[in-house]
Description:
Layout: H1 2-8, H2 40-58, E1 62-69, E2 74-82, H3 100-107, E3 113-115, H4 125-134, E4 138-143, E5 153-158, H5 166-210, H6 215-230, E6 234-240, E7 246-254, E8 267-269, H7 273-284, E9 292-295, H8 301-307, E10 314-320, E11 330-336, H9 344-399, H10 410-431, E12 440-443, H11 444-454, H12 456-461, E13 465-469, E14 477-480, H13 482-499, E15 505-514, E16 517-524, H14 530-538, H15 553-567, E17 571-576, E18 582-591
Parallel strand pairs: 13-15
Antiparallel strand pairs: 1-2, 1-5, 3-4, 4-5, 6-7, 6-11, 7-8, 9-10, 10-11, 12-14, 14-18, 15-16, 16-18, 17-18
Helix pairs in contact: 5-6, 5-9, 6-9, 9-10, 9-15, 11-13, 13-15
Amino acid sequence: MAKLVELTFPNFSNVASDHGSEAALSHLSTCQLPVAQADDSEWSQGLQNWIISLTKQFQCQWSVWLSYDLETQEFYPAKFFSTNHRTKLDEQTSFGALSSVDEKLVTRTDTAVALMDLKEDLRLVAWRDQLLAEGMQSVLMTRLTAGEDLKDVLLLGNTTARAWTVEEADDLFGYARQLAQAQQRRALHQSMLQETRLNNLFRKGFHTLQSTKSTQSFVDQAAQILVNLCDVSGCVILLWSPTRDFAKVKALANKDHAWLGAQVGTQVNLGDPLIHLISESARSNQTCLSPVQLSVEGLSPETQEWLSVGGGQSIVGFPLQPQPKQSVFGAILLLSSRTGALTDLEHKMLSDLARYMAWVLCSSHVTESWRSEYEALHTLHWYQNKMLGHAYEGISPHLEPMHSHSSQSVQVAAEKVNAIVTRLNDQIVKLIPDLDMEIQSVTLVRLLREIIDRLEPVFAAKKIWVQVHHLKQSNLALKTSKTHLSFILDEVLRAATLRSEAGGRIDIWCRMNHPDWLDLSITDHGNFDPRFLKDIHLGHYRDRLKPSLLNEDVGQRLLACKTLTQKLGGKLDFLALEDDRSLTRFTLPCITQ
């Protein structure tokens, strides 16, 4: 019985402990492992050279490093060398799981296990036939890591029966420890490189997002950053509003154009199971940002219909939520073909980025709402002042006769005052529809004539010549509000006169580039302030702390004109031409004749 125990668990003497220091292995200097900082090719070649050197060191025909695959629960050659060039062994060769007895044989000893003759030995039954088929009759094997869980195995093979010495068993055990320590250093180095890469991508992504000018640009950049940051197949960003019953795909990015069928602008019902799952997960977790992870096979038919993801993908969904107790108004969907969950570092970075995106998008939405309210109030203020000024011009001629009534009899004066009040009432009644934006048919020729005639004193004061070009159709009609468009054209022509030099000219160009749209361009020889052009194109509301010409005098009034033109269904642009002229261009809806 004692001999059987000794045969099963050989007790080699003078064995180094698993917990010994690296100094105890310093005498094993014949075989050199590659440094942890080596690149992938140098590391792989260094390991191969190390395996070859083991064969020479122990004067055997085989050196094999078998790595355990947790998924298949089998062993595969990570690195190997054989003097037999006709071997069938390769990296795809599978060595089955060891029996519990054989596993204890390797894990419960503090040295290598020697099997002198596989043909006669009763141990290593699971691998014996396969090793003999490869030409190995005797083996010396040991584990790489301490503990009862057998991960990797280092194995030496000989083509003939061989009595391995105690020193050889100790040395192989020491080499296995060296390989395990080198693997740990390599993994630590790779982890540090990965962390550095992710941190650099994270900082670069934040810098890119901070420099975006619009919400759409922000989400587009964010989707691309997320794909690069996590090395995933693709990313989809959904946004929704509490006032609507659907979400919308705002941005997507993918590395493989075949895997995703969703499109930007696709509307998704808020009752979709995936959106509901992400929202409920955010509501139930009030302390941190908790992602939802599931496979494509677990998606409902409703989700698969609009997402259209290929099989074999896994999905990680992050809610867009500024604070845990605030409303969820969007989601980030990451799609990946890799196995396993996100690393702790990836999870932290994604959570931080999702939180930042939520804050920015929420703030942008609030700012945009305030801006719209501000422009609406400002436009109304300008329009009211313009309307009152126009009303005063029409009323003032009727007020002058009242000054001559003092010398007349009371009855005659009363009759004349009554007549004046009647005319004033007619004028005031005409003002009431001007407050409403009633869209009607407006003849362009008549409108331009009325405005030019009304501004004739303004043009004459600076000796400005005004000419209309290419207005060939006398019955060309616009689909707009006459009062509003009249005030806008009045303001634009006054501004053109103000910036023009005395004796200059203003040209009005009419072009029908499309049957439904009129291109009305006004050119003058004045110059727009470059700061005004920049603010009105980019939107000064992006930085309210900086002063803007849109908050002052002419700039403020022209901004109101631009806003009101948009409400009329048209477009108003201000441009500087290369010949030092200024261009004010309207695009207005017209009625097809």
